[in-house]
């Protein structure tokens, strides 16, 4: 077992896949000569050359479209958005082109493309650089949406995403790039749509993904000292969604909280909350609760940012309230 | 009408073939308009009538392994590519036998085998897709060229700038063909274009450019061919502006009240079909022969209509099919 950072795990996944399949290329701003804005593509230019690790001008709509067009004729692009905030100027290509190409062509054009890059909130980056967009993309049929929380998951899920014949939204957590974890040395993949119980417990189920897993884990440790046993379901991908894993856990604990980095209104947690009440309603001892970012753009001020983000304390308070 | 007389039997038969394709497009669309008016075709229906020489001339400059990316006004391009009218008409009718199995409709004709890479409904969004297909040809070291049609309205959206800039810096084998029909829906070009001649924008990307009138089909073919060969030699993209005119409104729901009858009549005098027919007659083809050709094509279109009408609707099980592709 090697100890790798989240970014190293992503790098290893891309390098291994590109070594195997010459149709895969990496494209984005600063992915080559600069070695990646967040250094996820460090060393890849030397290994694969400028034909396969391709720097672009600042033009997300344009190079997202290049990726989609090239995937129509058999290439397998990995398109890096420096951050998902910038993906919004490419959202037409992602939704109107990539997500629908196979459907509107009657199955003629599979779309083996990965859009990946840094997402999430924090680090005092303020309103335009500090937001979680997985709910936006998870809204759209035709896309797969993957949000890994650990180096081990990041590696296995990115490999699966690259091998998938569908457009995958692979949102990396900017805050987690330096986080370390064990990654098996033997090659492995993690199927998209397979969540994982990250912690076993009996009193309440926390459903989460990506960086919010850390808030959930921290809250579980706090509550353990108070005699409350928390089970944590890490979804790992929102589309496809491991619904049964959620239901089995809720059947056991009878209570659920969704913890997510994004905004509450029309957020993905609302979908999970609906699914739980629809499918395992009779097991519930309490309405499903949610801990999200506050319903405001992100402030730069340190204290306001702290207050806006979900936190272990907010998760713990919510759970205490539910068990009272 | 200034006419060029086909000089030899080869150029006569070539023009005759172009004429056949243009008549096919016109009659196909007239039949589609009829079907639309009686409710057999739904959604939007944007007709190409008047612009036939652009699609036919441009696509004649290609080989079968070249790629075509089209707009929401894609019927003419698909027919010029040689796609059979039956599955195209069936697509308009939303039938299982449609070219996109009924999932696409008028704006989304696709035929992978014919390298017909789609009609696309978001104005200008497909310009960078075309650059991407050309990027793939270069990546795979294949000598295919991609041509991309769009209207002058699309030249004002960001995707145009990004697509052309990327194609230029990477010298991608792509030809951008702006079919300037002078109206973006109801907005005339003088209210939308700071510089009237779209092709001049090529200078901003250090790109080759061309500007032609779109009523003479062989001229369109000759000019596009120069650009296609340039792209194939690895010398990069070209922006060609072809001035043309749609005789109908933007779509079937548009009575086109924003333009004058006089203007329409003036353009109708430059109808590319009339022009080609006149030239064929000057080249020695008898009018009766051309009438016969038109009747044959009408029969073919009638058959397509019949085929579309009698084809089954897609099975309901298709609703959830194709959202995701099968695993690798």
TrEMBL record, chain A:
One function term, GO molecular function aspect: pyruvate dehydrogenase (acetyl-transferring) activity
Residue stretches making up the Transketolase-like pyrimidine-binding domain: 4-179
EC number per UniProt: 1.2.4.1
Pfam family, one: Transketolase_C
InterPro entries reported in the protein's UniProt record: THDP-binding, Transketo_C/PFOR_II, Transketolase-like_Pyr-bd, Transketolase_C
Keyword Oxidoreductase belongs to the record: yes
Protein name in UniProt: Pyruvate dehydrogenase complex E1 component subunit beta
Organism: Leptospira bouyouniensis
Upper lineage: Bacteria, Pseudomonadati, Spirochaetota, Spirochaetia, Leptospirales
TrEMBL record, chain B:
Superkingdom assignment: Bacteria
GO biological process, one term: pyruvate decarboxylation to acetyl-CoA
Record's signal peptide: none
Dehydrogenase E1 component domain residues: 20-315
Cofactor(s) needed for function: thiamine diphosphate
Family annotation (CDD domains): TPP_E1_PDC_ADC_BCADC
Catalysed reaction equations from the record: N(6)-[(R)-lipoyl]-L-lysyl-[protein] + pyruvate + H(+) = N(6)-[(R)-S(8)-acetyldihydrolipoyl]-L-lysyl-[protein] + CO2
InterPro entries listed in its UniProt record: DH_E1 (IPR001017), PDH_E1_Alpha_Subunit (IPR050642), Pyrv_DH_E1_asu_subgrp-y (IPR017597), THDP-binding (IPR029061)
One Pfam match: E1_dh
SUPFAM superfamilies on file: Thiamin diphosphate-binding fold (THDP-binding) (SSF52518)
GO molecular function: pyruvate dehydrogenase (acetyl-transferring) activity
E.C. number(s) listed in UniProt: 1.2.4.1
Keyword terms of this UniProt record: Oxidoreductase, Pyruvate, Thiamine pyrophosphate
Entry function: The pyruvate dehydrogenase complex catalyzes the overall conversion of pyruvate to acetyl-CoA and CO(2).
Subunit composition and interactions: Heterodimer of an alpha and a beta chain.
Name listed for the protein in its UniProt record: Pyruvate dehydrogenase E1 component subunit alpha
Gene, per the UniProt record: pdhA
């Amino acid at each position: 077992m090697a100890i790798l950072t989240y970014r190293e795990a992503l790098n290893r996944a891309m390098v291994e896949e590109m070594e195997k399949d010459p149709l895969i290329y990496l494209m984005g701003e600063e992915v080559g000569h600069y070695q990646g804005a967040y250094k996820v593509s460090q060393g890849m230019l030397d290994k694969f050359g400028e034909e396969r690790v391709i720097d672009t001008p600042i033009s997300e709509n344009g190079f997202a479209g290049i990726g989609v067009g090239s995937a129509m004729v058999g290439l397998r692009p990995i398109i890096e958005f420096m951050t998902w905030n910038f993906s919004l100027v490419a959202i037409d290509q992602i939704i109107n082109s990539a997500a629908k190409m196979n459907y509107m062509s009657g199955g003629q054009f599979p779309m083996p493309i990965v859009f990946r890059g840094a997402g999430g909130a924090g680090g005092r980056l303020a309103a335009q650089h500090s937001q979680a967009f997985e709910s936006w993309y998870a809204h759209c049929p035709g896309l797969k949406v993957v949000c890994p929380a650990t180096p081990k998951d990041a590696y296995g899920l990115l490999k699966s995403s690259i091998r998938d014949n569908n457009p995958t939204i692979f949102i990396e957590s900017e805050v987690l790039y330096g986080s370390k974890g064990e990654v098996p040395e033997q090659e492995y993949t993690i199927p998209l749509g397979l969540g994982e119980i990250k912690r076993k417990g009996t009193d309440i189920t926390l459903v989460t993904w990506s960086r919010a897993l850390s808030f959930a884990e921290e809250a579980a440790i706090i509550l353990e000292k108070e005699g409350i046993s928390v089970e944590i379901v890490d979804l790992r991908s929102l589309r496809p969604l491991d619904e049964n894993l959620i239901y089995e856990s809720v059947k056991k604990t009878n209570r659920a909280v969704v913890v997510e980095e994004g905004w509450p209104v029309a957020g993905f947690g609302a979908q999970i909350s609906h699914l739980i009440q629809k499918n395992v309603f009779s097991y519930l001892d309490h309405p499903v609760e949610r801990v999200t970012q506050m319903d405001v753009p992100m402030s730069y001020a340190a204290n306001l940012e702290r207050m806006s983000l979900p936190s272990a304390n907010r998760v713990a308070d919510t759970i205490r309230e539910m068990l009272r | 009408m200034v006419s060029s007389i086909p000089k030899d039997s080869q150029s006569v038969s070539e023009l005759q073939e172009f004429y056949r394709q243009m008549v096919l497009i016109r009659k196909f669309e007239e039949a589609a308009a009829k079907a639309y008016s009686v409710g057999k075709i739904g959604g939007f229906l944007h007709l190409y009538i008047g612009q036939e020489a652009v699609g036919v001339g441009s696509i004649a400059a290609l080989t079968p392994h070249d790629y075509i990316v089209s707009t929401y006004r894609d019927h003419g391009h698909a027919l010029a590519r040689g796609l059979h009218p039956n599955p195209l008409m069936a697509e308009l009718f939303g039938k299982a036998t449609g070219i996109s199995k009924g999932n696409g409709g008028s704006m989304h004709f696709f035929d992978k085998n014919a390298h017909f890479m789609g009609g696309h409904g978001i104005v200008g969004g497909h310009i960078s897709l075309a650059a991407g297909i050309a990027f793939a040809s270069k990546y795979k070291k294949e000598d295919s060229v991609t041509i991309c049609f769009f209207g002058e309205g699309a030249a004002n959206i960001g995707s145009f700038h990004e697509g052309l800039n990327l194609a230029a810096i990477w010298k991608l084998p792509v030809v951008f063909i702006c079919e300037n029909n002078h109206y973006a829906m109801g907005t005339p070009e003088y209210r939308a274009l700071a510089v009237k001649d779209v092709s001049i924008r090529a200078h901003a990307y250090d790109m080759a450019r061309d500007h032609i009138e779109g009523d003479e089909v062989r001229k369109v073919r000759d000019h596009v061919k120069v650009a296609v060969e340039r792209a194939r030699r690895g010398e990069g993209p070209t922006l060609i502006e072809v001035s043309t005119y749609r005789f109908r409104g933007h779509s079937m729901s548009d009575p086109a009240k924003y333009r004058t009858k006089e203007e329409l009549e003036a353009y109708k005098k430059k109808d590319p079909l009339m022009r080609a027919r006149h030239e064929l007659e000057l080249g020695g083809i008898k009018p009766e022969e051309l009438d016969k050709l038109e009747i044959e094509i009408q029969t073919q279109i009638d058959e397509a209509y019949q085929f579309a009408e009698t084809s089954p609707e897609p099975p309901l099980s298709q609703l959830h099919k194709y959202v995701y592709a099968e695993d690798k």
